[in-house]
Design a protein that fits this description.
Length: 184
C-alpha cells in the first residue's frame, strides 16, 4: 500500500506535468518536503541531468511556467557546472536561447552553492557542432545557493537563496552535454 508521501508525490508529478498552475501544488509540495531525506553526499548523482521548471513561487515572468517556454536547469555536479536555459518550446527550441552558466559546489547534504560566471545568448547548434554565442562575464556580488528539499529520479523541489520555491521535472529526452555545447 503506497504511503501518503508516495501518493502526494505521484499527484504532484501529475499536476506538474498536466496542470502546472493548479493551486493544490503548493500544498502537495509541503507534504512531500515534510518527508524529505535528501543527502547530496550520498545521492548527488541524482541531481545530475536536465530539469524543467514546472512551478515556482516567484513573481518574475521568466521564473513562471508557460506552455510556450522551456525553462531548463542543466546540472553536472561531477564537473561542478550548471546552466539556466530559457528557450522557446517546440520546434523553435534549438534556434536560440538565453543562458546563464554557473559553477556548482555541493556544500552540505541539501545545499548547492552557485557561482554565476557568464550569461547571454546561445545561437543554433550547427551541423559542425559549433554554436554561435554572445556571452558576457557576470560579476556576482552575492552568495547564491539552492537548498534541495526533495530529490528523486523524476522530481526535484528546491528553494533559492531569495526564498523562492521551485518544482522541476527531469527531462530524460535532453542531454547535459548537448545543451552545454559539447558532443556526448
Amino acid at each position: 500500500m503506497p504511503s501518503s508521501t508516495d501518493s502526494a508525490r505521484e499527484r504532484l508529478v501529475e499536476l506538474l506535468m498536466n496542470q502546472p498552475q493548479n493551486p493544490v501544488i503548493s500544498e502537495l509540495l509541503d507534504q512531500v518536503e515534510a518527508k524529505s531525506t535528501v543527502d547530496l553526499f550520498k545521492a548527488g548523482e541524482a541531481l545530475a541531468g536536465v530539469w524543467e521548471l514546472r512551478w515556482s513561487s516567484a513573481t518574475q515572468p521568466w521564473l513562471k511556467q508557460a506552455p510556450w517556454l522551456e525553462n531548463l536547469q542543466v546540472i553536472d555536479p561531477k564537473r561542478g557546472r550548471g546552466m539556466n536555459l530559457l528557450r522557446l518550446g517546440g520546434p523553435m527550441a534549438d534556434l536560440a536561447a538565453v543562458a546563464v552558466q554557473a559553477d556548482l559546489t555541493i556544500e552540505s547534504k541539501t545545499r548547492v552553492s552557485v557561482r554565476f560566471r557568464r550569461g547571454g545568448w546561445l545561437g543554433p547548434s550547427l551541423i559542425s557542432g559549433w554554436r554561435p554565442t554572445l556571452m558576457a562575464a557576470i560579476q556576482q556580488s552575492f552568495p547564491a545557493w539552492l537548498e534541495i528539499t526533495w530529490l528523486d529520479e523524476r522530481l526535484r523541489v528546491c528553494r533559492g537563496n531569495a526564498g523562492t520555491r521551485f518544482a522541476l521535472l527531469r527531462r530524460d529526452d535532453l542531454s547535459v552535454d548537448a545543451l552545454m555545447g559539447e558532443r556526448p
